[in-house]
Amino acid sequence: MPYTGKGTNTGRALQAVLDNGLDKNGDRPGVLNQILVITDGKSKDNIKRPSSLLKQKAKIMAIGVGTKLRKDDLYDIASDEKSVYFPETYAELGELKYVLSDMYCPPKCIV
């Protein structure tokens, strides 16, 4: 979802995935849907309803980058406590991709 410079609307982004991402575009039977949310963790809108609906359709990992987070938002979004990550910088985020690929991707999905 493109950033418009008007704050963080994570609930709206999650709703867009519900409306456009899973059922209409690429959902395959028998394949686990996985969603990776990267945010500053300070949404201006409601995340509870769309995240609850998405959890019924996909495994959701939530990554909050930075130090000024509302950690509760990330835990509300993620499928479980083990799927929440808190890198403090974007450099740390780059390293996290290898950890996540080992956990959630088929072998060699990230080179």
Can I get a quick summary?
By secondary structure, the chain is α/β, with parallel strands linked by helices. Helix content is 38%, strand content 13%.
Question: Can you describe this structure?
Answer:
Residues 1-103 form the VWFA domain. This is Oidioi.mRNA.OKI2018_I69.chr2.g6175.t1.cds. The protein has helices at 10-21, 48-55, 71-77, 90-104, and strands spanning 34-39, 59-64, 84-85. Helix 1 (10-21) packs parallel to helix 2 (48-55). Strands 1-2-3 form a three-stranded parallel β-sheet, covered by helices on one side. The protein is an alpha/beta fold. 38% of the residues lie in helices and 13% in strands. It contains four helices and three strands, in the order αβαβαβα. The protein has a single domain (10-104), classed as 3-Layer(aba) Sandwich (Rossmann fold), CATH 3.40.50.410.
Topology, pairings included?
Layout: H1 10-21, E1 34-39, H2 48-55, E2 59-64, H3 71-77, E3 84-85, H4 90-104
Parallel strand pairs: 1-2, 2-3
Protein name: Oidioi.mRNA.OKI2018_I69.chr2.g6175.t1.cds
Organism: Oikopleura dioica (Tunicate)
Pfam families: VWA
Tell me the CATH architecture.
3-Layer(aba) Sandwich
Low-confidence residue ranges? none
What is the string of SSEs from the N terminus onward? HEHEHEH
Summed up, the helix count is: 4
Q: Which key phrases capture this entry?
A:
111 residues, alpha/beta, Rossmann fold, 3-stranded parallel sheet, 4 helices, Oidioi.mRNA.OKI2018_I69.chr2.g6175.t1.cds, VWF_A, ECM_Assembly_Org
